[in-house]
Amino acid sequence: MSVAFRRESDEEHKEPRFELPLPPGPNLVTARGPALIAAKVAALEAALAGETAEEAREGLKRELRYWHTRAATAEVAPRPGEGVAGIGTRVAIRMNGRERAIEIVGHDEADPAADRLSFQAPLAQALIGAEEGERVDFGGRAEAIEILAVEPIAA
């Protein structure tokens, strides 16, 4: 048989599995962030303990390494001053005639569908440091957003 038709194993032809990428910058979280990360770690450890398929186990281990790193590097962001938007605050805004409330949270806590934005998101960046009653620029438009209220997120 020709060498061209031999294959040592299927493993040598698989794509390499890289680690999950870590977001750039500090791992700032809200006061409830460490508990959310710990819950994710516990859920993954339980899933890993019950998994028997080796490929699925490798995927769970990979995800678990990511969350262990996030737990080890998490820093609770300092609370901003009273009435100032920052990490760990709920900000009521009016933009384009619509009112909505945005929570500014850490990267791993973000859920844009539930209006929880990472502090690195463009809208959150525009809001951070703004105070109640202030108007801020956004999307190339001057004073595009009006800050209606700012309150801390309950831990």
From TrEMBL:
The reply on keyword Protein biosynthesis is yes
The keyword DNA damage is assigned to this record = no
Region described as Disordered? 1-22
A molecular function GO annotation: translation elongation factor activity
Q: Which UniProt keywords apply?
A: Elongation factor, Protein biosynthesis
Domain Transcription elongation factor GreA/GreB C-terminal stretches: 83-151
Q: Know the name of this protein?
A: GreA/GreB family elongation factor
Query: Which organism does this record belong to?
Result: Sphingomonas canadensis
Q: What is the lineage of its organism?
A: Bacteria, Pseudomonadati, Pseudomonadota, Alphaproteobacteria, Sphingomonadales
